[in-house]
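Structure, all four chains, one model.
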Amino acid sequence: MTTTTLDQTDLQLLRLIQKDASLTNKQLGLKLHKAGNTIFNRVERLKEIGYIIGTLTIINREKLGEMLTSFTSIQLKDHSTQSLKNFEQEVVKFTEVMECYHMTGDFDFILKIVVSNMQAYKEFVVNRLANLPDVGTVRSQFVINEAKRELAYTLEMPPFHANGQ
Amino acid sequence: MTTTTLDQTDLQLLRLIQKDASLTNKQLGLKLHKAGNTIFNRVERLKEIGYIIGTLTIINREKLGEMLTSFTSIQLKDHSTQSLKNFEQEVVKFTEVMECYHMTGDFDFILKIVVSNMQAYKEFVVNRLANLPDVGTVRSQFVINEAKRELAYTLEMPPFHANGQ
DNA sequence: CTTTCAAACAGAATTAAATTCTTTAAAGTG
DNA sequence: CACTTTAAAGAATTTAATTCTGTTTGAAAG
């Protein structure tokens, strides 16, 4: 029924809404030289074919009190597929673990951990993180300052297009 | 005029909208046992006093072609305030650098870099990143798999409240 | 070259949500 | 107790979202 490929207008649209979801269809239409209706239809299509996942509100977390952020690297004692899967499955359950990446290099995982202070961090690592099976070395690096945190990707027209994957 | 402190309803509201900005005021009101109107007023207030920064659309970046993500650590040759400021100021200008954190530990900065493939990564590091002043050691760790990436914070009632900071 | 079909679009019509306005009730203050 | 302030609800209004319909365009078919 509908094509799963994007044209330049779709890309422009994605670029705009990934920075600001509060723009109305009319406003977007003005920028892209289309009717508000047309924007609406395109956005619906982009949702259907999976380019748009959802929409969220960015909160100023700093206003809600103390915050300590760490990038914590984990090296497992055992590198079997089972151990890796196991650790990953468990570690993502912690609400303190905002992000978890399986990585190349000396350490197996990088976790972004957000807690309220060093006391809470210590409690978390010692009593909970280190208790997961096969956890070997844990290296903690703390954020002194967040200089940039961009959520919107630079969207480039892919050279191929026609992949609905 | 308006209080800058949050009550439980405000926190609930923030928890809900930081996960889904497409909920209508009426829907939110139903969940929180308030009128749609009341939700509207609260959200307006939360914007005014700076708890709500904005709203954005999450794009499925994977559908737009190849992607290689790296956590790249940088050690500067010189650790003077001036060098740090200088580096930070310049590095955040690169669109490939999605995130930049000033860190404790052996390395001064951690950068989250997103490019389309290893060729582009090499080009970026060699021709651009390494050319910034005072760049010493560069350590690249690549993401094999993203197991978790949560943008919504766990919002807890702060023990103090009354800070409009 | 003409016909046919499908897609993108614009504009009107409709529905639903956002926003404003007014009133009420509760809570705090002197 | 009178006075003020605040949160909230409900009605009224404005604006945006959504649906519907007709037109245009371009590509494919004959």
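The first helix of chain B runs from residue 8 to 17.
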